[in-house]
């Protein structure tokens, strides 16, 4: 048994930590202040472009992909701890070209894209020149049940025609967002998991319209954002379909494993940050003759946070290690476990950090806790709600007892 | 034993419900939309003034005060259920001239104000012509421990001089807000609970400055808002002190009982609304072949919400009844109990309602759940954080075992 | 609104409290010690018979029945608080002839029994001369779903013939237990709720056999106990059927309301006792320089216990008041609510009391906490498990939204 | 990163699993039945002696000690998973000579014992010929605070004289138990952690008296048991002191790390067993048209159990790995973390297993769930209550923020 990262992983982690400490964290507050001061916040501030260039130059770029060609050849279990580190900041993931949903979309293209699709979309994504979105969830149906999906991607001769309405299309507000992966029903008569297709849609295609951006607890998370997008008779050549018609579910399945590990590890980084804020505030203020951190049930809260984080991290690392050694099929239950456990854990810790901060805790202008809370809250719904993942864990558990 | 309201209470409740249903609820969405469309939202829209006038004309006005002269002669236990009803709406309390912190401030003036203070401030407050604020919490110290308070209200000849910085001064953004009650240290050498004074401060007094308004989960709650207010050598005649120097704690104590009952009952109304939204959404959408409301652990969530609400309501009614029959000293533990129980309960139910709504649940533009969440979250800190109230409940419990 | 008991209720409660304090509590420990010292503990010790006689002589007898003929004319809401008082002791309920399942069985006989049944069984039960059992739950099926019931009560000419196996037949070990109410399937083709019958079975009828007594966390709860009972071709005259064939569900329904209020109120008395023990232990021992009751999160535990108890009591009183004023059909949701809430609450508080007691808490010989725990744990399963009651609460809640 | 055991560990684990499956599990029920049938249960049944001999012959003996001389040279992280396996059975640990408190006592002797002490006590313990007890907790004081300890081990010339009363001396009822390690105050004036000594006390020394055995939820856990032991002027040569006077705390500290890992891993095995029972029962019974395992919130319960167990196991393995690679000082926080997390987790899962079993769940005669519950409940108090461990985790966490 060995809980250490690989040597390469340790090297990269050390460099990412240094970059975070020296380049990102010092500018973060100013960045948010500057962005907040703008009339139009759907922009990429120069500091981000500069930091991206610097990170790229140092090879801290596309760290997520476990391969030397596209990524840095890091194992999932190595990258996990790096993703955690970047999760302490809201801007770090983009700077290392490791932010959702681009990482997942790039993985889809690497594994399933045609040469032409790779040339057109993967290359600029890997270069950080464009951004992408993923359009799956729909406003009119309970999308936790993917078979509810109503949007269509029908074949018409040499073309595929998209219709439907999607929301929570994350990142679609970004000025560099040029393409979306759209999932829709192609053949209702095919076997259940062969009915849907994934289609690459340039956002300037006629019929694609961003209806509005969605606020999350009052925040639009500019310049990324979550959009409501309608697709009305959007016509594309059949070559825009990824891996051919009917393979949507297969691709979705493969996309999930590493993506959820990344999400969860970033959330653990966020939880560490919330715990750090909680302790610093708790140490710096006194009430009833003691620092708040030592008052009443607060040490229990701190201990429980530490214990939850440690356990969640280990579970995610185990999951990443299974992905590394056995692939997605060997990690199915673990992938659902971390997705069910960690966003809820983050929400709990942030909520407690807010409480220990007192009034300041709920003010967006004074502490990043409301932003962390919104992040946690969304994560309990995004990529499958907690309920769906718990149900999956239970189903796989019961399956162990069948002959 | 009788769990029915008094006849008078039932009559008023019926009328309030009708007013809510016919006058307030139908215009609420349009009101919020109109307000949101404005550049400056720190205004009173005409519809509010009209509804206030209508409510006043029907005698649905100042319902909170248990006396015929100033209020409608309703018992606390009667008003409790009316406050619950108004808690289902964010605008209803002001329309009935029953919103915090004005109700508490009016009570202070009724019980402790001089004739001149009543004439100057109580009269227009009762008439709904002006609004008021309450300035107690301070940004620099853990204000859960009131002895931490740093602001001063020093006597200088015939004057009282205020210095300090307050925040979470609720309602101070309202254009009609004309006066604040300020609490500060007057005599550090007096016995612990005789050191502080409460002072009426016209907001246009030189030295009073609203530094900024505080966002709560991104929302400023216009036109009420929560302000950071600095007081710099604010000079007022000694007659501005309520009930004389050194009586701040005594007044605060008396202010709390009914105020907390009102807060808690409004929060119960909010919880009912969240439960209603949860069920309606849960009934209207299907996943995995069933309405979401009947899926997996969701019926447990609905049952637990109903059971928590019922119990919380009964505890608050008991508390109100104790206030009616024995006064604040007979209800001390109950007042802390409801304040410790109900905001947390509301937060839990709203959080679950969000989850059952799916993505829509976190979008401020689609459902009022984020607003309800922010309301709950603030209430767990306002008027004493949960921890302080639990500590008080425990202290009073242990006291029962002393000889 | 009035949270006071009726005058009659207050009078009885005062007398019961005095009797508890002067007669029962002083002998309780010696009683348990003596019983424990016996080879055969399935006996009624003389002190119990004496105390029964004394209670009966003082009119503190059959307090549970809200009628002057059979009981003392107390309202359910009055008796609730008396039941709470008796719940502080494991022997008190029998002494006042108010223990389950006899109270429920007597109510069944009062409401549904024939004159002959009343003469034969109700009279001696009311006199406290015999005891009874209730045989419904079955070992072979999930009895939470009553339609699973396999036992039969088939009509054969003038006779009814019972077959089946029951368990958790509470009280059947008592030496005075002479009769059981047996529930079985009579007509599988009748409408769902007309299929079962309730039959009065003298325990000495051929074919009735107590197979074994069930330990609950190691305790047999002598001399009451819970039995596994088999019925093999037990033949009785048709007149042994209560209210005629097919009325089993109807009777069961009516039996539940008051019975559950009694159970829940006794459990609240038990919770008060656990809280009292917790505080006394917590006050009497020091660790790390403070009484344990004031250490770390313990005040929160004490406060939460007090808050849970208060809320649970009020909910039960409201339920009892609904039974008094509207009958069982007006209290259906409340009856399920208290049954879902209170046993779990009791378990939680007892568990925390154990923790605060340290090692002593788990020793049956040192504190009554393990006995209280077993009582709570069983109550979460008896009379319908928590899950069934929560499901009922949810079902009734959803029904409010149907047209 | 590597989550696999060492090759040696895998080999031993495979053999232990086979032994469990082929030798222990098949006889377990009969063993318990036979023991229960005896008048005197404080005996070692022949089957145990036979299985011990067989395990010893196969080298499955003293697996716990990470050294080739005394043990099998297994790493803590290897043995952890073996301890988990043995934790599925109440008799397995003794059969492999790996049961508490003997393992901890042997470790103390190995690390701190004199040659003579090793010869006299360690040798027969390693051979499984005798058993031992550990006497630290005291009935009169809150022993969670070790400085409360009142028992004394005073030096009188060449002798050490013991006085005091201990309880929860686990294993002292075993007929082979020949020696206890007693902890007492030697020098009240020494620095805080140099005041106490550990002394080896042959149980037949004059002045040692087992006052009574303690029931835990009605069970005495024969033939091990927990005793109340008084020491009255017990005189022993100074050579009975382990490592010399004043080193009690130092020894206690060193004893804790591996001991707690063993306890926690066995508890995880117990949790796996409870989960297995829960699922088997849940799969085998139907209610309301579905297997109970799939009903309502039960899949969530199963999923949560699986997720808790996985996380707890990983945390314990990490802790064991830290002990292997950095020693106790590198694992202090982890040792407290697992002790705070796992017993509570086990209790929760067992409680839920009971609920899913219905009535049968609380009957000791029908399922081992009450025994598992008692085991969990005791473990939340033994070896430091949850509260002390959480406090330690918090203290170490806060320490990270000090300069």
Automatic annotation (TrEMBL), chains A, B, C, D:
GO molecular function (one): acyl-CoA dehydrogenase activity
Biological process terms in GO annotation: fatty acid beta-oxidation using acyl-CoA dehydrogenase
CC per GO annotation: cytoplasm
Keyword Flavoprotein: yes
Family the UniProt entry places it in: Belongs to the acyl-CoA dehydrogenase family.
Keyword Cell wall biogenesis/degradation belongs to the record: no
Domain Acyl-CoA dehydrogenase/oxidase C-terminal: start-end pairs: 246-395
Residue ranges annotated for the Acyl-CoA oxidase/dehydrogenase middle domain, each copy included: 133-234
Gene3D superfamilies attached to this UniProt entry: Acyl-CoA dehydrogenase/oxidase, N-terminal domain, Butyryl-CoA Dehydrogenase, subunit A, domain 2, Butyryl-CoA Dehydrogenase, subunit A, domain 3
Oligomeric form and interacting partners: Homodimer.
Domain of life, source organism: Bacteria
Keyword annotations: FAD, Flavoprotein, Oxidoreductase
Cofactor(s), by name: FAD
Highest classification ranks of the organism: Bacteria, Pseudomonadati, Pseudomonadota, Gammaproteobacteria, Pseudomonadales
Protein name: Acyl-CoA dehydrogenase
UniProt organism field: Marinobacter lutaoensis
Acyl-CoA dehydrogenase/oxidase N-terminal domain: residues covered: 14-129
